[in-house]
Design brief:
Blueprint: H1 2-61, E1 66-73, E2 77-83, E3 86-93, E4 96-103, E5 115-116, E6 120-130, E7 136-141
Antiparallel strand pairs: 1-6, 2-3, 2-5, 3-4, 6-7
C-alpha cells in the first residue's frame, strides 16, 4: 500500500508541475514572437531607408551611374518595390500585412520591378538612366532574376 501511495503522490506532483509549466511556456512563446515581429519591422524599415538612400545617391550622380546594394530583409518579407517617390517593403505579421516606406527624391523608372519571395541577404542593382522624356530616372534591378 505504501508503494502505491508514493507512486500516486509522485504522479500528482508531476501533474501539478506540468500544469503550471505549460502556461508559462505559452506566455514565453507569445512574448518572444512579439519581439521577433518588432525586430522584423525595424529591419524592414532600415532596409527601406538603405535602398532609398542608395537610389538618391545614384540619382544625384546623373545618368549611367550604377551601384550595387546589399540588403538584409526579414524572413517574413512579402514584397519590396519602389513607386511614386518611395521604397516600400511589405512584411507578414500576426495581425496581417505591415508596410514600411522610405521617401526618395529620385524619379523612379518604369523598369523597376516588384521583388517578391526574396528574404535574407541579397544584392540589388540601382542604376540611373535618361527616361523617354529626357529626365533622369532610377531603376532597381535584381541581378539574380532572368
Amino acid at each position: 500500500m505504501a508503494k502505491g501511495q508514493s507512486s500516486l503522490e509522485l504522479l500528482v506532483t508531476v501533474g501539478v508541475v506540468i500544469a503550471f509549466t505549460i502556461p508559462v511556456l505559452f506566455l514565453l512563446l507569445s512574448v518572444s514572437s512579439m519581439g521577433y515581429e518588432d525586430t522584423a519591422k525595424a529591419q524592414a524599415d532600415a532596409t527601406a531607408r538603405t535602398l532609398a538612400d542608395t537610389m538618391n545617391t545614384v540619382y544625384a550622380q546623373g545618368p549611367d551611374a550604377q551601384r550595387e546594394v546589399l540588403l538584409n530583409v526579414p524572413a517574413s518579407t512579402e514584397s519590396l518595390y519602389a513607386a511614386d517617390g518611395e521604397v516600400i517593403i511589405r512584411i507578414r505579421t500576426s495581425t496581417g500585412s505591415f508596410e514600411t516606406s522610405s521617401p526618395t527624391i529620385a524619379k523612379i523608372g518604369a523598369g523597376s520591378r516588384i521583388i517578391e519571395g526574396k528574404t535574407g541577404l541579397f544584392k540589388l542593382v540601382v542604376r540611373s538612366l535618361r527616361g523617354a522624356d529626357g529626365k533622369i530616372e532610377v531603376e532597381i534591378l535584381d541581378p539574380a532574376s532572368p
